[in-house]
Amino acid sequence: MNLDLSYQAAEEVMRKNASSFYAAFKKIEHAKFLDIAAIYAFCRYADDLADTESQSEARRLQLLNLLEEDVKSLYMGSNQSDNYKKYAWWFAFENAVRLRKISLDALLEQIDGQKSDFNFEEIGDKSDLILYCKKVAGTVGLMLAPMLKGEKADERYESICEDLGIAMQITNILRDVGEDLRNRNRIYLPKSLMKKYGVTKEELENLSVVPNSFNKGYSFFKSTLEVSDKIVCLWEEIALLSDYYYDKFYSHLYMFDSDALFPVTAAAVFYQSILDEVRKNHYDCFTQRSYTSAKRKSELLKIVLRRVENVKNNIKKY
């Protein structure tokens, strides 16, 4: 396997599956971008095994277990020739892991987080929610941290990278309540908060039912869903938790390298805005997926540039 071809394969995975992030991170130093793409390809593969319906659950779990063994073999110095054949992006991934000294624990926790969806246990409280988000998304921040690190980074830096992953995963959960129920029969909203606001699983299931025409993909479907105040309050309390982690991240932007500052800030601002899109859709996170439109992103770009400029102008103060 040729290393350049392997990096090309990883880059293509990122380009196809995360076009906005691809465009933003493409602007940083090329070598760092390629290693980010390699890490993304690994994470995408693990996530797809947890989510895809094209293979049986038993087979997908088997493949995750094999991936775990393959990752461990990297750190044992084992010959990787079989893995080069198995995964087109593996040579690039191996190179990135070795060059950037990426933590084995972060890689294994990512896989463990994906495995947890196979033996899903309901989220008990906020601490359980944070732990889940750390595993499936905070670990991504830890893996990318070496490529984004600036001169001002201190011992808190990796935790800040982890915080952004947690914030984004909570955003995903708040966006996809209905989709998770319909497709996986799972609720990621903490049981303790559901009890606090008197929200039942049955209520959420009833809200998640969509017309047959929508299931067939007809574009004329328009939601007229009425979401109760108690569900709005539940949703908003979890959104506050997400905002807390976004704010922690924003307050430490100075720790990131100058060429990484724009893409990480844009990623955070654009993703956080999904929460406002859910609000604009009258909290219908049950029958439609809210997203940040290109027009809205162009408006948010002013906020991104202002944050970036502020950090650069005040970098000597940190």
TrEMBL record:
Q: Which GO terms describe its molecular function?
A: geranylgeranyl diphosphate synthase activity; squalene synthase [NAD(P)H] activity
- Keywords from the UniProt entry: Carotenoid biosynthesis, Transferase
- Pfam families xrefs: SQS_PSY
Q: Name one GO biological process term.
A: carotenoid biosynthetic process
Pathway, per Swiss-Prot/TrEMBL? Carotenoid biosynthesis
| PANTHER family xref list | BIFUNCTIONAL LYCOPENE CYCLASE/PHYTOENE SYNTHASE
- The name on file for this protein is All-trans-phytoene synthase
Source organism of the structure: Streptococcus oralis
What's the encoding gene here?
crtB
